[in-house]
Amino acid sequence: MTKFRFSRRAVLVSLAMGGAMLALPSHALAPGFTAYTKAGFDAALKEAKPVLVHVHADWCPVCKKQQVVFGELSKTPEFGKLKAFTVDFDKETEFKKTHNIGSQSIILVFKGGKEVARLGGATEKDRIQNFVAGAIN
Question: pLDDT tens for residues 90-105?
Answer without folding.
Answer: 999 999 999 999 999 9
